[in-house]
């Protein structure tokens, strides 16, 4: 297959949330834009398929979307008019313990804090200023390094965000508060003693208390479909089933943005880059991988704690100490016997995900980079630990190890779903130390993936900011879509 010979103002390669956001931003500015996707459908990490049995719709990658709902850019778009509907479960997240109790993270900050009893004041002190300022903070945090528009709010956030999760945990005295906090921080996918691991927890909690932890009706692909539909309505062009391996395959344009990680960027356009930029890209570090399971179920998961059946997401890791140990072992290249498991049960709140009376569930755990070890038994043992009888309701399963995740999406290098390690060394300098992280050393070539600030998550802000920078450089356009 070959692409049209038509000339375009700009081309975006890769249709994940960032590629879609970049393409929309460019098209909104009046440019002619071509969006190219290697697979048959757009979406990147926003895809849903019948992975197990007919009628059971599973999210292949991303499943729960506090960051999409919080995205300052996505919130400006009329995505509801293009079919997107978010569903907020009654309880965003539950964190069960071995003693058949559970910490419940609810939309209400006060209700969540009240249930933490002896840690109520500590939780309110930590989260109240951030939640209060979240609409402004989201715009600041989901951006490249810059002088903030709201310096006092950012200073308060940064003071806690730059510390380690284990350090913040010392503010809590109870098992529920410590466990809840550490489960949130484990989304950082690195040792929880590392600096900046608190940032992920603070962002996820602030988003949850502000907009919830919603899922998309019909599957995560509904987000990509809505973005693609809106882009097309603006006059944008989408070409699918075309794998870009070199710049020579592309039609003529003044600007190309790549929603890919440094490894793929080097393969496609490395010959255009300066030696120092290539050296920086080659030194880019990728993080932990994931092992993922999707289940078709005969009935809902039989959690021992009834409230867990009202939660869209569950963190299955028991105590803070156990989660810390699990993530530390994984960061050292080992496979824990009791992995921290992230689980979602979308069909409880979206009947379109499974046949009548049946259900689906989605889960993954962190594993060493590139791991091919089958973690099925260990993950299911963790679920059974908090839901006795779970194995009895499994009808079918589909698994993907880290190598298979990368085979499915080349941007998941070694199974890393964040586009690269998000440690203190790469948080603001990803993928290279430059005045603009989106601008490569080659004229007219930019990178707009989660390997750029602000990093992983289905928020599209990497693509938005990359497109704004590229337009300013190439076309002198300072005003397009604004947030």
Question: How is the topology of this model organized?
Answer:
Layout: E1 10-13, H1 17-28, E2 33-36, E3 48-49, E4 58-59, H2 66-70, E5 86-87, E6 91-96, E7 102-105, H3 109-115, H4 120-132, H5 134-141, H6 151-161, H7 165-169, H8 175-185, H9 197-211, E8 215-216, H10 221-233, E9 237-239, E10 255-258, H11 262-269, H12 275-282, E11 289-297, E12 311-316, H13 320-331, E13 341-344, E14 359-367, H14 376-386, E15 394-400, H15 402-408, E16 445-447, H16 461-474
Parallel strand pairs: 1-2, 1-10, 2-9, 6-12, 10-16
Antiparallel strand pairs: 3-4, 5-8, 6-7, 11-14, 11-15, 12-13, 13-14
Helix pairs in contact: 1-10, 1-16, 3-4, 6-9, 8-9, 8-13
Give an account of the 3D structure:
The structure is a single chain. This protein has 483 residues and is α/β, with parallel strands linked by helices. The chain folds into 2 domains: 10-47 and 61-84 and 216-285 and 418-474, FAD/NAD(P)-binding domain (3-Layer(bba) Sandwich); 88-214 and 287-408, Polyamine Oxidase, Chain A, domain 2 (Alpha-Beta Complex). It contains 16 helices and 16 strands. It has a 7-stranded mixed β-sheet with strand order 7-6-12-13-14-11-15, with helices on both faces. α6 packs across α9. It is globular.
In terms of structural class, how would the helical and strand content be classed? alpha/beta
**Nearest-angstrom radius of gyration?**
21 Å
Q: Helix segment count?
A: 16
Q: Tell me the overall shape.
A: globular
**Relative strand content:** 5-15%
CATH class membership of the largest domain: Alpha Beta
Number of strands: 16
The largest beta-sheet arranges its strands as 7-6-12-13-14-11-15
| Rounded mean pLDDT score | 96
């Amino acid at each position: 297959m070959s692409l049209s010979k038509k000339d375009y103002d700009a081309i975006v390669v890769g249709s994940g949330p960032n590629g879609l956001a970049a393409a929309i931003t460019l098209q909104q500015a009046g440019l002619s834009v071509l969006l190219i996707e290697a697979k048959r459908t757009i979406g990147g990490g926003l895809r849903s398929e019948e992975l197990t049995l007919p009628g059971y719709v599973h999210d292949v990658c991303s499943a729960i979307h506090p960051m999409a709902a919080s995205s300052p850019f996505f919130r400006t778009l009329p995505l509801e008019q293009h079919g997107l509907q978010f569903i907020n479960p009654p309880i965003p997240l539950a964190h069960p313990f071995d003693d058949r109790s559970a910490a419940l993270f609810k939309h209400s900050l006060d209700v969540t804090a009240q249930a933490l009893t002896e840690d109520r004041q500590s939780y309110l002190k930590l989260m109240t200023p951030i939640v209060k300022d979240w609409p402004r903070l989201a715009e600041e945090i989901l951006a490249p390094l810059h002088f903030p528009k709201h310096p006092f709010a950012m200073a308060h956030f940064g003071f806690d965000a730059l510390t380690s999760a284990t350090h913040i945990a010392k503010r809590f005295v109870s098992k529920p508060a410590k466990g809840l906090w550490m489960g949130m921080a484990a989304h950082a996918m690195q040792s929880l003693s590392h600096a900046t691991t608190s940032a992920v927890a603070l962002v996820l909690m602030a988003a949850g208390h502000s907009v919830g932890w919603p899922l998309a009706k019909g599957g995560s692909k509904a987000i990509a479909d809505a973005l693609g539909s809106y882009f097309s309505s603006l006059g944008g062009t989408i070409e699918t089933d075309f794998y870009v391996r070199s710049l020579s395959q592309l039609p003529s344009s003044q600007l190309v943005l790549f929603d890919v990680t440094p490894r793929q960027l080097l393969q496609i356009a490395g010959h255009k880059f300066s030696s120092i930029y290539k050296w920086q890209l080659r030194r880019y570090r990728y993080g932990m991988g994931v092992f993922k399971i999707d289940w078709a179920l005969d009935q809902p998961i039989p959690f021992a704690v009834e409230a867990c059946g009202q939660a869209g997401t569950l963190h299955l890791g028991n105590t803070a100490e156990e989660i810390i140990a699990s993530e530390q072992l994984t960061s050292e290249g080992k496979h824990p016997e009791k992995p921290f498991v992230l689980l979602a049960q979308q069909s409880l709140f979206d009947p379109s995900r499974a046949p009548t009376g049946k259900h689906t569930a989605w889960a993954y755990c962190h594993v060493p980079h590139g791991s091919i070890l089958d973690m099925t038994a260990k993950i299911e043992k963790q679920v059974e630990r908090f839901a006795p009888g779970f194995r009895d309701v499994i009808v079918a399963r589909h698994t993907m190890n880290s190598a298979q995740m990368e085979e499915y999406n080349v941007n998941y290098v070694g199974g890393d779903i964040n586009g690269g390690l998000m440690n203190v060394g790469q948080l603001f300098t990803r993928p290279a130390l430059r005045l603009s992280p989106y601008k490569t050393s080659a004229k007219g070539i930019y990178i707009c993936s989660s390997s750029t600030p602000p990093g992983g998550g289905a928020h599209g802000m990497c693509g938005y900011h990359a497109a704004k920078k590229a337009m300013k450089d190439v076309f002198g356009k300072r005003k397009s879509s604004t947030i």
